[in-house]
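Our consortium's second objective concerns turning raw sequence data into structural hypotheses that experimental partners can test. To show how far this objective has progressed, the report includes one record in full. It was chosen at random from the queue rather than selected for favorable results. The single chain below, 137 residues long, was entered without modification.
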Amino acid sequence: MPGKPLPKVMTWDQDFWENAEKGVLSAQQCGQCGNLQFYPRVVCVKCFSTDLGWKSLSGKGRVHSFTIVRIPANPAFKDDTPIVFAEIELEEGIRIHSDITRCSPEEVEIGTSVRVVFSPTTSEKIHLPHFVLTGTQ
């Protein structure tokens, strides 16, 4: 069975992956209107400016919504089930989709405090963000 698929690094999200490799969660911030956005895009979704920079984020937030994946669409993730896939509202006010790891699904509730952690992959350049319950090592 082939390995897990990895994101393809694009010119507009390369800085995100470089920051992740250093253990820093970041999002684009528009130099024209100040809009903070995640996931990375070529233009600001608010004013369509291409003047986008990067802002380091706290990596802390709360579970806004979640679901439990018991049968993954890609068989490469079978050994990871059950997967807690969540929408996390970060302290900075934006939301990110990621998994919550190092806990049982029963421990996760709407409003649960979480923080980001990064895990290396088979690519030296890609470190994936995951979230853990606050207080988890």
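The partners drew two points from this record. Strands lie at 26-30, 36-37, 52-56, 60-69, 83-90, 95-100, 113-120, 127-133. The two ends are 31 Å apart (CA to CA). Both points have been shared with the crystallography group to help prioritize constructs.
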